[in-house]
Amino acid sequence: ALVSADDTPLRTTADRLVDIRHIRLDVDVDLEQQSLSGRATIDFTALQPVRQLHLDAVDHDVRSVTDTTGGESSSLTFENTGTELIIDLGLKLAKGGDRRIAIDYQVTHP
Question: Strand, coil or helix: what is 15?
């Protein structure tokens, strides 16, 4: 197996559960308060059946995660560990299935 300099196994395409096709960031920056808030809208396709999406989110205060696929809007449950955002998609997305989610968040002292 391939490993990185710190002995962490490298992730290969076969390890990926989804293909992130597009990310749109809408961000408001408050220089005085040293914070930013925003919305990340992510379009992705399942590379294999998947029920959860795992994203890096170090020190992000995630306010909400919404499924906005097809113009509809429904809240998704999520767990924020402080380093990772784990999103429950609500149902298993089949291989080749497309979704769009919106994540509202804030970061202080980025």
Answer: helix
